[in-house]
Amino acid sequence: MSSIQVAKALNNNVIIAHHPEHGEVVVIGKGIGFNRKTGDAIPLEAVEKMFILTSRYEQEQYKQLVPHVDEQLIEIIGEIVTYISRKTQTELNEHIHIALTDHLAFAIKRAEQDLAFHNPFLYETKEIYPVEYELAEYAIRLIHQNLGVDLGEDEIGFVALHINSAMTNRHISEVRGHTQLIADLVDVVESELKFTILRNTLDYSRLLTHLRFAIERIRRGEQVGEVEKLDGLLKQEYPVLYGVAEKLTLMMEQRLNQPVYRAEVSYLTMHLHRVAPPHIK
């Protein structure tokens, strides 16, 4: 069988169908449900331009969501997901359809009620995930153009995290948690060293990038090269910065529930030396 059979059209853009390989699936695509009747066959070649939810759990979530979401928004999200997939050449986790639809539908409702929602780690998101942020800008711009609702910069940051979640196959709570952790680590640095790091500097951007990759290494259990001589020298030359670096690694260890290799302290000390005022050692 080289086609899918329509079981039910949920609306013009979403159908439930029987797939030759996956059984019952939810298919999302512009106009796919228009004038469709039960038993209609759709060639698989045509379905290649659609999105197929094969996970039963994702299907059930999406079925419950669809009746409460404007059809035009579903169509726009399809365009957004296609754009992201094409731009990144990445096979996105199918949960992005549920996550983005649910999130953006709620964000639009809040905007219409003039209920602002502040993004506490917008700057960090923009710096840590520049590709995802640019894709999210496109998404928010498309919604503005088609629905006349400007969701603003805070929402760009939230959508960027959803995009990263879909690209990396990590749950949004984990992605958000890591971004929050980085923001908290920066707060500790500023509190311990009693100064504010300039956000628009290259050194600050490098610090955020280092913290992101340190978290990734710790999460994967990846060991960085030991630097015993350098470690001793840094501890002696920069005792204050070294002490802050130790606090940061302990914080990462506790929040990620993973051991942190000692070498991370040395690398963090060097990055702190870049951003700290010259008198702090």
Automatic annotation (TrEMBL):
Positions of the PRD domain: 68-173, 174-281
GO biological process: positive regulation of DNA-templated transcription
GO molecular function, one term: RNA binding
Keywords: Repeat
Any matching Pfam family: PRD
Domain of life: Bacteria
Family: Belongs to the transcriptional antiterminator BglG family. GlcT subfamily.
UniProt protein name: PRD domain-containing protein
